[in-house]
Specification:
The structure is a single chain. By secondary structure, the protein is mostly helical. It has a domain of about 130 residues: Cytochrome Bc1 Complex, Chain D, domain 2 (Orthogonal Bundle), CATH 1.10.760.10. The protein is built from 10 helices and no strands. About 20% of the residues are buried. About 0% of the residues have low confidence.
Length: about 290
């Protein structure tokens, strides 16, 4: 091999070596990216947080709109009232409203603008609707089974497996929970609480009466409470009850559906519709 050929081969080998080294270096840098474990500090950002907050206005693709009943339990009518009020407040030219100074005037104004509160008895004809009275999706047998499962996990410890307000919590000195059955909290296997008052008389509250509606002067048995109110209480909590926002909205609705099933199972003396009675008889349920 001539000297010229030898030099050419050396240059070719050197070039190949440089190319391979460069390629290996690039591959190594791509494979070894900067990495932070969750909540690790970093000096890259001024606030030293490696976990970055979401930009304002970011919307999850699976997120429900705020006025969707499945997310809040509120009616479109209630949201329209709220949006109108919010627009008036945001408008600098909007005239200021004089709410008055007497207790009666302030109470009337508070009732008008306490959006999302059980301030109207929806059983009264012509009353404003705050909470939806129908489920936002069709409830199936599988939904009821799922609701029973979630109710047993999250609710029965206080409200009892029958929904009669006699779980184990109150026995240990905790706030007496609401029963979902009757104005005096009747229900299967129910015993009277120590010192319990018969709420079938003039007592505005009771273990079977909605405490939220009672605050606004409405005595509403739990069977008559709109389903949207149940959803709102599960979502936000009430009094000694914590909020359960970590339960998926659909599962919260399934819990409400199961509560309705409990109420229907013990709270009615009405005969079954003829078609359902026939199915029960055909299945061997006839006495």
């Amino acid at each position: 091999m001539t000297a010229r050929a030898t030099n050419k081969a050396r240059l070719l080998a050197l070039g190949l070596l440089v190319t391979v080294a460069a390629g290996a270096g690039c591959r190594q840098r791509m494979a070894d990216q900067p990495y932070y474990r969750p909540l690790d500090p970093t000096t890259f950002y001024e606030d030293h947080r490696s976990n970055r907050p979401l930009e304002r206005g970011t919307i999850n693709r699976g997120q429900y709109l705020e006025n969707d009943p499945i997310a809040t339990g509120l009616t479109q009518e209630e949201w329209e009232r709220y949006y109108k009020y919010a627009a008036e407040v945001a408008d600098a030219k909007a005239p200021k409203v004089d709410y008055g100074h007497t207790a009666e005037e302030l109470a009337k104004a508070n009732k008008e603008f306490a959006f999302g509160a059980p301030r109207y008895d929806q059983r009264v004809q012509g009353a404003k609707k705050v909470y939806v009275e129908q489920f936002p999706f069709r409830i199936t047998q599988d939904d009821l089974k799922r609701g029973q499962d979630r109710f047993t996990i999250y609710c029965a410890v206080c409200h009892g497996p029958y929904g009669n307000g006699q779980g184990k919590i109150w026995e240990r000195g905790y706030l007496i929970p609401t029963s979902f059955h009757g104005p005096i909290g009747e229900g299967p296997n129910r015993k009277a609480y120590p010192g319990e008052v018969d709420t079938s008389k003039d007592n505005p509250q009771g273990v079977g009466v909605s405490r939220g509606f009672s605050i606004w002067g409405h005595r509403v048995p739990m069977q008559d409470v709109p389903v949207g109110y149940y959803f709102e209480v599960i979502t936000r909590g009430y009094a000694g009850m914590p909020n359960y926002t970590y339960i998926a909205p659909e599962d919260r609705w399934r819990i409400v559906a199961y509560i309705r099933a409990l109420q229907l199972s013990v709270g009615t003396n009405q005969p079954l519709p003829a078609d359902l009675q026939k199915k029960l008889d055909d299945a061997g349920g006839k006495k």
